[in-house]
Amino acid sequence: MKKPAPRTENLRRALAQEAARVMAEHGVRDFLLAKRKAAERFGVVDGSVLPRNTEIEAALQEYQRLFGGEGHEAALTAQRQVALDVMHRLQEFKPRLVGAVLAGTATAHDDVILHVFADRTETVTLRLLEQRVPFELGERRTRLNSERVVNQPTLRFEVDDQPVELVVFGIDGIRQAPVSPIDGKPMRRADVNEVAALL
Q1: Which residue has the higher pLDDT, 36 or 7?
Q2: Rg (CA), the chain
Q3: What CATH number should be reported for the domain whose range is 72-198?
Q4: Using DSSP, how many helices (H) and how many strands (E) does the chain show?
Q5: pLDDT in tens, 54-81
Q6: Sign of the Cα pseudo-torsion (179, 181, 184, 190, in order)
Q7: Residue 94: how many CB atoms within 10 A of its CB?
Q8: How far is 153 from 167, CA to CA, in rounded Å?
Q9: For residues 38 and 56, is the Cβ–Cβ distance under 8 A?
Q10: Residue 41: exposed, middle, or buried by beta-carbon count in 10 A (0-12, 13-18, 19+)?
Q11: In 85-191, where do the E strands start and end?
Q12: Reported pTM
């Protein structure tokens, strides 16, 4: 494979950094939208120089390390604490933390996203009703493998002003994580002990 020219490589890096800035400052979680905004700002029309999602995520981690400081760390710790509290309250559904809060790239605009596993969505809704947690029902498009995309049921609520989204999978959904939109590999999931270790 031919190595890209240094100028192309520098432009690609600059686009990744701009996309990361857009995500951090404006709460954009869609990598494609962040790329488009970065390309627009730089006047780039050649799609071949656009950075990969993994490059943008690395740039986002770097951005937060350089500019987020203690504020970012405090916000991330608070989000992970909310995740842990909810995981304890819903432990019968074997919750797993996923996404930006787990990766450490979350901004103040990000939801805490948990995968939970139950025979029926109603089982989870009943538990939330018992705990007097008001919630909204919804759906999230999830890529299970290279060919299969499904709409998973979701339950959204807030804990201490932090939005939380539960994505409900069948019991056997715990065996295989869906595909990550960042690198196309199985999504990283953390159980309650792993989240506690992060804190």
Answers
A1: 36
A2: 18
A3: 3.30.460.10
A4: 7, 5
A5: 999 999 988 888 887 788 889 999 999 9
A6: negative
A7: 18
A8: 6
A9: no
A10: middle
A11: 96-98, 112-117, 136-143, 149-159, 162-169
A12: 0.85
